[in-house]
Amino acid sequence: MSEQDFVERMAKFPGSEVKLLRKGQIAMKVPADKGHEAAEYLKKMGFTHLVAIEYVDWIKDNEFELVYNLFSYSSKMRVFLKVRISRDNPEYITFMDLWPVAMTHEREAHEMMGIKFKGNPNLTPFILEDWKEIPPMRKDFDSRKFVKEKYDSIPFVEDEP
Amino acid sequence: MVDEKEKIVSEDMGVQVDKKEDIEMRSFGTIKRWATKRSLWMVHYCTGCGGIELAPLMTSRYDMERFGMHPMVTPRQSDLLLITGYVNIKTLKRIIRTYEQMPDPKYVVAFGSCPINGGPYWDSHVTINHLDKYLPVDIYIAGCMPRPQSIVKAFDDLMDMIQEGKADGYLRYKKYYDKYKANQEKIFRKWW
Where are the beta strands (DSSP E) in chain B? Predict the structure, then answer.
């Protein structure tokens, strides 16, 4: 199957917005409530590998975007499944039933962005230690101010000769 | 009590040389320092990109073993701690734990610009910018990353410093222990 065939097949999914980005890369936007269905649809098409779950903070739109990066070994194609969720109460459903590895990716998204995934039992602290601030990858987290207050305020121990 | 102990160690390592000093003690110190500087065993904490520069350094091209240096498996048998790259809160805990296990005399070499002031990661939320606020550093190597030649030069300088008794990081750590600990406590919420 050629790329155009894939694009056409994906466009048949209700509510989807499909765009061919470049050779072998397709972006597919779906409404948030149809994300799981779309993932199932894509998995049946041969996109069996969940490479990563990316997350984008669209702070002006007050939305988070989740990008599910899927890969097909049979056709060597990559598809980015994009859903947008509200920033006020960031919550989404887990994809663990389709790809068990989603647990780790969702755990990361939970730690770095503060997105909760319904059905994921393991949303515990992951990489960060001792973290008490808002999730650090959010756009409204002021990294420089944080560094100034936390690390630059610590005095030097001794005056070097 | 602490001062007396420190003084003995200092004299031994030639930090304080006064006129009354016994000539035998002095020569023994010289021999000890000479032996120390020619048998630096290192534990390298490859936190960042500097670890990649150690491979040509250890192998036949630059051959660090001609200086009597070679990697050691445990911190308890090492003299030299290499911090090869950026340090964040999580790794700093491990570094301190490693450093405190090492027997005296011990030396710290900081690679690259990251341990000096943060380097390219100066505004990252986890990278501690100045390593010498938490651990005494004997010698810094500037560069991002330093090439093996400059590392060899740094080791050469470190050996000279040891011979002259100027590499006194571990003594400073003892002297200002409370201050170092206070700084470490400030950025850790819990130790483990």
Answer: 41-45, 70-71, 80-84, 107-111, 139-141
> pTM, whole model, 2 decimals?
0.80
Domain at A3-150, CATH homologous superfamily: NADH:ubiquinone oxidoreductase Nqo5 subunit (3.30.460.80)
> A96-116 pLDDT, tens per residue?
999 999 999 999 999 999 899
pLDDT in tens, A18-74: 888 888 899 999 998 988 999 999 999 889 999 999 999 999 999 999 999 999 999
Cα of A129 to nearest chain B Cα, Å: 7
State the Cα–Cα distance between residues B141 and B155, nearest whole angstrom: 10
What is residue B88's DSSP assignment? B
State the smallest CA–CA distance between residue B2 and chain A in angstroms.
18
Let me know: does B183 contact A154? Beta carbons within 8 Å.
yes
Does residue B182 carry a pLDDT above 60? yes
* Residues of chain B with a CB closer than 8 angstroms to some CB in chain A: 89-90, 93, 122-126, 128-130, 132-133, 136, 172, 176, 179-180, 183, 186-190
Q: Do B190 and A150 touch (CB under 8 A)?
A: no
The first and second tokens of residue B10, run together, are 């200092």
**Which residues on B lie below 8 Å from A128 (Cβ)?**
126
Domains and CATH numbers, chain B: 37-187 (3.40.50.12280)
Confidence of residue A161 (pLDDT cuts 50, 70, 90): very low
Respond yes or no on whether ipTM tops 0.90: no
- Residue B86 scores a pLDDT above 60: yes
Cα-based angle B14, B17, B135 (whole degrees, multiple of 5): 45
Q: Which two tokens stand for residue B43?
A: 């534990």
